[in-house]
C-alpha cells in the first residue's frame, strides 16, 4: 500500500508490508520518519516517540506530535494519518534537495534502471545483513538475552542488546574465563568516606557509580598504553643489520 512512498524515501525495507493495524509497525515507521526525514523535533524531544514498548506514553507523545505538525482534522484512520506523514516527508525531502530531483528525467531514470539490472548482484554471506532489528521477535530475543545476563530492563531493546554485547565481550571472552574468580570484600562504594558531595541521595549514588566506571575506563586505557609501549620496545630493542645499506636498524 505504501511501497512507492517508502521506496522514494529510501526506507530500509520497502518491500516488507506495513501493517497499520499492528501498533509496533505503525510506531516504528512514525519514529523512523521523524528521525530520518521530518526532523520536526530536536533529538532529545523525540524521547516520547521512542517509547514504542510503552503504549500509553507513546500514544500521548503521538497525540502531541500530530498537534505540532498540524495534522488535518479530517484524517480519521491510522492509514490516512500514515499516508499524510509519508507525503509530508516526501515534500520535505524534495524541498531539501530541489537541484538533485529537478535534474531527473524519465529517460535518465530508465537508463539507471537498465544499468542496475545489468550489474552483477552480490549476495552477502553475513547473516546479520538480513536481520530486521525492528521485529517483535528480535526485540523479545534481545530482552531475553539481557535478562539472562542479569542486565536491568530497558524499554529500548537496542540499548539492552548493546549492554548485552558489552557484558559478553568483557566478562565472557576466552581470556576472562581463564582468570580466577576474584573473591574478597567488595569496594565499599556506599560507605562513608566516599562521598561526592551531592545533597540528593539518588544523585549521590549515581555519582559514586559513575566515578568507579571512570576509574575502570582509565585503567583500561592505561593497560592499552602499557601494551603499546611494550610492543614498540620489542621492535626498537631488536635492530636488524643490513650490510648492503651500511645501516643498523630499520
UniProtKB/TrEMBL annotation:
Naturally occurring in which organism (per UniProt): Corethrella appendiculata
Molecular function in Gene Ontology: ligase activity
Keyword tags: Ligase
UniProt-listed InterPro entries: RTRAF
Protein name per the record: Putative trna-splicing ligase complex
Lineage: superkingdom: Eukaryota
Amino acid at each position: 500500500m505504501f511501497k512507492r512512498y517508502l521506496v522514494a524515501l529510501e526506507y530500509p525495507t520497502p518491500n516488507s508490508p506495513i501493517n497499520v493495524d499492528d501498533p509496533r509497525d505503525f510506531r516504528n515507521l512514525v519514529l523512523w520518519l521523524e528521525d530520518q526525514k521530518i526532523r520536526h523535533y530536536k533529538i532529545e524531544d523525540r524521547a516520547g516517540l521512542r517509547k514504542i514498548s510503552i503504549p500509553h506514553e507513546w500514544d500521548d507523545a503521538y497525540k502531541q506530535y500530530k498537534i505540532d505538525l498540524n495534522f488535518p482534522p479530517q484524517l480519521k484512520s491510522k492509514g490516512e494519518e500514515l499516508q499524510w506523514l509519508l507525503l509530508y516527508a516526501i515534500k520535505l525531502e524534495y524541498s531539501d534537495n530541489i537541484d538533485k530531483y529537478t535534474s531527473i528525467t524519465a529517460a535518465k531514470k530508465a537508463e539507471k534502471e537498465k544499468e542496475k539490472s545489468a550489474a552483477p548482484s552480490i549476495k552477502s554471506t553475513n547473516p546479520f545483513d538480513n536481520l530486521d532489528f525492528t521485529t517483535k521477535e528480535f526485540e523479545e530475543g534481545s530482552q531475553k538475552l539481557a535478562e539472562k545476563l542479569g542486565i536491568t530492563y530497558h524499554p529500548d531493546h537496542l540499548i539492552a542488546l548493546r549492554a548485552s554485547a558489552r557484558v559478553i565481550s568483557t566478562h565472557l571472552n576466552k581470556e576472562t574465563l581463564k582468570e580466577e574468580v576474584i573473591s574478597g570484600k567488595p569496594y565499599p562504594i556506599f560507605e562513608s568516606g566516599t562521598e561526592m558531595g551531592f545533597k540528593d541521595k539518588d544523585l549521590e549514588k549515581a555519582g559514586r557509580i559513575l566515578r568507579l566506571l571512570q576509574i575502570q575506563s582509565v585503567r583500561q586505557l592505561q593497560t592499552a598504553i602499557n601494551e603499546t609501549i611494550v610492543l614498540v620496545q620489542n621492535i626498537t630493542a631488536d635492530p636488524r643489520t643490513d650490510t648492503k645499506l651500511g645501516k643498523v636498524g630499520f
